[in-house]
Amino acid sequence: MTPALLHLDAQAVRRLLSPAGAVAALAEALRLGVDPETGPGRTALPVPAGELLLMPAAAGSWAGVKIVGVAPDNPAAFGLPRITGSYLLLDGPTLCPLALLDGAALTTLRTPAVSALAIRHLTPERGELRLVLFGTGPQAYAHLEAVLAVRDVAEAVVVARDAERARHGAERLVAHARGLGVPKARTGTAADVAGADLVLCCTTARTPLFDGRLVAPGATVVAVGSHEPDARETDTALVVRSAVYVESRAAARREAGDLLIPQAEGAIGPEHIAGTLAELVGGRAAPPDPKAPRLFKSVGMAWEDLAVAVAVYRAATLAHGTDSET
User: For residues 101 and 12, what is the distance between their CA atoms, to the nearest angstrom?
Assistant: First the structure.
C-alpha cells in the first residue's frame, strides 16, 4: 500500500531539524559516498514572474526533487517571499512519494548548513572569532545561527547594501545576534572585512560587495548568493589571492560567477580550485595556505536538499511514530 504523504510546512521543517543536525546530515551523506561531481545540473526556466528552478537527486534508498520559484517582485508587490517552492521526497526503490516539505524553509536550512560544514574545515577554532555578515534576509539570519553551531563568535558586524536596510534590517539582525549570545554585534561597512576572521556573503548582489585586497591572510570568505555565471559577490582580487573551495568542480564551472568571471578575465584558470567539500570532509584536501585567504563558493546542489530532507523526514516519523499524514 502506498504510504500516506507527510506534509511538512515551514514551521515543521525548522522545528524538526536544527542547524547542527543539518550539518551532520550533509557530512554523513558525503561520508557514505555521495559524489557531488556526478549530480545533475539545475534546470532553470524563465517565466513571466521570474524563474522556475528544478533540482532532482537520488542517493541510496531515497530520491527527491525541489521546485523553486524566484519572483523578484514578490516582496514589494505582494508582501510575499522572493523565494517560494516545495520539495517532494520519494522512496528510492519504488519512487512512491513520502513527504512534501516547504521548499523555501528547506533551502534556508540547507544552504547555511553547507556553509557551516565548510567553515568547520576551513576556519580554525579561536575564542575571539570576528564575523562580518553581508545581507539582512532569511539566509543572513540562518547563516548566523549555523555558524554559531560550529564556531564561537565574539563579534558580529552586519553590513547592508543600502542605507534603508542599514537602518532597519541590519539593526534587527544585530539585535538577533545579541539575543543569540554574540557579545559584540553592530552594523558596519564593507571596510570591516579588513579585521574579519570570517566573512559571509548572503545577498542577491550581482557585483562585488567589498575590496578583496582588504581580506586578511587566513581569513575565510563564504559566498552563497548566486548560482548564475554572470553574477558574483566577491571580486577578482580576492579570488586570485585565495585558496578556493567549492561543492563540486563541475557545478562551479557551470554556475559560479565568482570564479567564472575572473577566469573569463584571464586572472585564473580552472585549476585554481584547491578542493571540494567532499575532499575537506574526507580529509583529502591539502591544508589551506595560512598566508592566503580561504574562499568557499557555494551554488547550492540537489544532493544537499535530499540529504537534509531525508533528515527532516526521519525526525518527523520518529516524532510521530507513524507514516500517517500530519
Answer: 9
pTM for the complete prediction? Answer: 0.94
- Alpha carbon separation from 237 to 60, 203, 285 (Å, rounded): 41, 19, 23
- Is 222 buried (19+), middle (13-18) or exposed (0-12) by CB count in 10 A? buried
Which of these, 245, 150, 155, 160, lies nearest to 195 by C-alpha position? 155
Amino acid residing at 321: G
Give the strand pairing for 50-59 and 62-70: antiparallel
Q: Considering only CA atoms, which of 29, 77, 21 is closest in space to residue 49?
A: 77
| Cα–Cα dist 100/182, whole Å | 35
The C-alpha atoms of residue 239 and residue 312 are separated, in whole angstroms, by: 35
* DSSP 8-state code for residue 69: E
Rounded Cα–Cα distance for residues 25 and 21 (Å): 6
The grid coordinates of residue 271 equal 585549476
Exposed, middle or buried: residue 2 (CB in 10 Å: 0-12, 13-18, 19+)?
exposed
**Distance in angstroms (rounded) separating the CA atoms of residues 147 and 132:** 12
Cα separation, 317 vs 45, in Å, equals: 34
The position carrying cell 557579545 is: 183
User: Per-residue pLDDT tens for 62-92?
Assistant: 999 999 999 999 999 999 988 899 999 999 9
Q: What is the mean pLDDT of residues 42-51?
A: 95
CA distance 157 to 196: 9
pLDDT in tens, 104-147: 999 999 999 999 999 999 998 877 799 999 999 999 999 999 99
Angstrom distance (rounded) from CA 296 to CA 206: 17
Q: What is the pLDDT of residues 229-261, one digit of tens each?
A: 999 999 999 999 999 999 999 999 999 999 999
- Tell how strand 83-91 and strand 97-102 pair up: antiparallel
pLDDT of residue 166: 67
